[in-house]
Amino acid sequence: MEQRLTDLEIRLTHLEAALETLDRTVIRQQEAIDGLRMQVERLTAQVRELAPSPVAPIDEERPPPHY
């Protein structure tokens, strides 16, 4: 009985260590995702500033040729 308890405690210690490692990995991945998301938002804003919209404002729109 004592040996089983010791084995369970060892397994629990290993599982806790693995969980801590996974937790740190998830945190690092989330930080990377957040950084990439911010980069995408900045790049999207830059592209919108550089590329004019193919749609003209409503007051500049001409009627289609069949009118």
Mean pLDDT across the residues is: 91
Order of helices and strands: H
Give the overall silhouette.
Answer: rod-shaped
- How many DSSP E strands? 0
Give the end-to-end Cα distance, rounded to a whole number of Å.
Answer: 93 Å
If you compute it from the alpha carbons, what radius of gyration comes out, rounded to the nearest whole angstrom?
29 Å
Strand fraction equals under 5%
- Amount of helix: over 70%
Structural class: mainly alpha
Biggest sheet features:
none
- How many helices in DSSP terms? 1
Uncertain regions spanning at least 5 consecutive residues: none
Structure description:
The protein has 67 residues and is mainly α. The protein is built from 1 helix and no strands. The longest helix is centred in the middle third of the chain and has 49 residues. The model has no long low-confidence stretch (mean pLDDT 91).
In short:
With 67 residues, the chain is mainly α. The protein has one helix and no strands. Helices cover 73% and strands 0% of the residues.
Could you give the topology of this structure?
Layout: H1 2-50
Note the main attributes of this structure:
single chain, rod-shaped, mainly alpha, 67 residues
